[in-house]
Amino acid sequence: MQIDRIDRQMLRHLQQDGRISNQELADRVGLSPSPCLRRLRALEEAGIIAGYHTRLDAKQLGYTLMALIHISMDAHTPERFEHFDQEIAAMPEVLECLLITGQEADYQLKVIVPDMDAFQELLLNRITRIPGVTGVHSSFVLRRVVDRTDIPV
Fold it and tell me: HTH asnC-type domain: from which residue to which, for each copy (predicted)?
C-alpha cells in the first residue's frame, strides 16, 4: 500500500492518541469523516496499523525494576533458537526479546519485575533453566532517558 501525506498525518495523530475519535482525526487532517474512516480501515487492513494499545505506568502497578539481559546460547541451530523463543514468549515479565548480532550474546531481553527478589527468581529459576542458555549478563536500568513507541512517519 502506498501511503501519502494525509495517511502519514493520520498515523502521527493516532500514535499520539489511539483513542482519538474519527471526527477529531478527520478535522486534524482536513478530511470529512467518511473518507477518513475509509483511509483508517485501509491502513488497518494493510497491516500498517498493527493494533491499538493502552500504555500503563509500571511504577504505579508496583514494577520498579527494569533490566536488560544478554543471553548467550550453546548452539546456533534453528531448533535451539525456536525453543528459546517459545519459552521466553511465555514469560509476561519479558517486555522485549531481540535476537542480536555484534555482541558476545545472542539475545537481548528487556524485563520488568517488582523488585530484586522477583528478578532473581526470574533469572535463576526460569531463564537460566531454558536448555541451551550458557551465559547471562544483566544490566539494570537507572532511568529512561528516551521512552517512546512512536515510529517516525
Answer: 3-64
Query: Out of 1.10.10.10, 3.30.70.920, 3.40.630.30, 3.90.230.10, which CATH number does the structure's domain 59-140 have?
Result: 3.30.70.920
Checking if the pLDDT of 102 tops 90, the result is no
Q: What is the maximal distance between C-alpha atoms in the chain?
A: 58
Q: For the chain, give every domain's residue range.
A: 5-45, 59-140
pLDDT digits (tens, 9 = 90+) for 42-55: 999 999 999 999 99
pTM for the full predicted model: 0.89
